[in-house]
Amino acid sequence: MGTNDRLREAAEKLALTLSAGGGMQRSTARVLTALLYTEQDTMTAADLCEELSISSGAVSTAIKHLTPVGLIERVPAPGSRRDHYRFRSGAWAALMSQQNTMLATMRDSAREGLAAADSGTITARRMHEMQDFYTFMLDELVPLIDRWREKYAAEHP
């Protein structure tokens, strides 16, 4: 099996994992992994359609889902009339950083629940645990991502 076949197989395996266990639409996961595993610097939507044997609508929908979350980006391609896309550098840290918004939302929801619950009730206990957990995650995750970025930048100038 050649390198391209092995890369394609690894990409499909990850796409299955992302769609089955990660909740991502299958075609979106396939577009993501195609851009992650390609040896090309960029790919057009037509390239993705051909590579994955999926419709242009499926590729367009995937691009609309993956771009705002920072996993892929549109890049200029001088002389080309088509949009070109690539897997974004720093995408994993950016994706994890976006989770901070959900963590803060969950913490804030726990605070609202605590304000509404009577003290000493089972609901209050649950809300305290929820608040403590999400506060801890926020306190730990932000510096952890920052440390990873610093380490990565130092190792890959």
Describe this structure in words.
With 157 residues, the chain is mostly helical. Helix content is 69%, strand content 6%. The chain has six helices and three strands. It has helices spanning 3-20, 26-37, 45-52, 56-66, 91-116, 122-155; strands spanning 43-44, 72-75, 84-87. Strands 1-3-2 form a three-stranded antiparallel β-sheet. A hairpin with an 8-residue loop joins β2 and β3 (84-87). The longest helix is centred in the last third of the chain and has 34 residues, at 122-155. The protein is elongated, with a radius of gyration of 20 Å. The relative contact order is 0.08. The mean pLDDT is 92.
Number of helical segments?
6
Instruction: Please summarize the sheet with the most strands.
Output: 3 strands, antiparallel
Task: Assess the beta-strand content as a share of residues.
Answer: 5-15%
Which H/E pattern describes the elements? Answer: HHEHHEEHH
Strand order of the largest sheet: 1-3-2
Could you estimate the helical fraction of the residues in percent?
55-70%
Quickly give the structural class.
mainly alpha
Shape: elongated
Rg (C-alpha, Å):
20 Å
